[in-house]
Amino acid sequence: KNSGADGFAFVLQSQSKSALGSGGCDLGYGKIQSGIAVEFDNYCSADRCDDPQNNHVAIQLPFKNILSSHHRSSLVTCDDLNGVKLDDGREHEGVVVMDVEGKRIGVGLDGVEIIERADFDLWRWVKNDTDGLWIGFTGATGGLSQEQRIMKWNFAVETKQQQQTTGGGEKE
C-alpha cells in the first residue's frame, strides 16, 4: 500500500529453518547468519541503513558473517527502477534468477532486468556445511506500517545436465 515502510526481501540463508532477523529497515533479514537477501525497499532509512533513496532494489550480503541491510554490505543497488514505484499500490512482478554453476545473479522488475552480476558466487556468502538452505521472504516495518503481498512465486533448480538434455531433442 502507499506511503508506508519499509519493504520486503527474498532471502536464502543457512542459519536455520526458524531464523528470524530484525525489523524496521532490516526488513526482517538483518542479523541472520550466513545468507543473501534481495531487498525491495520502499522507504529511505538513510540514518541506520544508508539507503540511497526510498525506492530501490539491492542484493545484500553478510558483513562479518551476519546478513546486513546496511548498504555498505550491498553487492549492487539499483535505484533506477524504470519508473516503477514500489509503494504505488499496484502489483509488480519481481524476478530473481541465480545460476549457481555459472556464478550469475539477476533481478528483474516488471519485465525489465535491472540488476545483473556475472561474478556472483553464492557459496562464498551462504555456508554450505549446514543441514540445509532455506529460501523465503521477510518483511518488516518500523514506525510506519505497510502491507506487502506475495501473490505468486516459483522456485526451480536447473543443472547443466538438465540444460543439455531438455529442449525438444532426444537424450543422448
Task: Classify the helix fraction into a percent range.
Answer: under 10%
Mean pLDDT: 83
Query: SSE order, as H and E?
Result: EEEEEEEEEHEH
Q: How many distinct helices?
A: 2
Major sheet description? 5 strands, antiparallel
Number of strands: 10
Rg over CA atoms, rounded to whole Å, is 17 Å
Helix-and-strand structural type? mainly beta
Short description:
The chain is mainly beta and 172 residues long. The protein has helices at 122-125, 160-165, and strands at 7-13, 35-41, 56-60, 62-63, 66-67, 74-78, 94-99, 104-109, 112-117, 134-140.
Pick out its properties.
172 residues; mainly beta; 5-stranded antiparallel sheet; 3-stranded antiparallel sheet; 10 strands; 6% helix
Describe this structure in words.
This protein is 6% helix and 31% strand. It has helices at 122-125, 160-165, and strands spanning 7-13, 35-41, 56-60, 62-63, 66-67, 74-78, 94-99, 104-109, 112-117, 134-140. Strand 7 (94-99) and strand 8 (104-109) form a beta hairpin. The strands form three sheets. Strands 6-3-2-1-10 form a five-stranded antiparallel sheet, with no helix packed on it. The protein has a three-stranded antiparallel sheet with strand order 7-8-9, with no helix packed on it. It has a two-stranded antiparallel sheet with strand order 4-5. It is globular, with a radius of gyration of 17 Å. By secondary structure, it is mostly beta strands. Mean pLDDT is 83; it is low at 164-172. The chain contains two helices and ten strands.
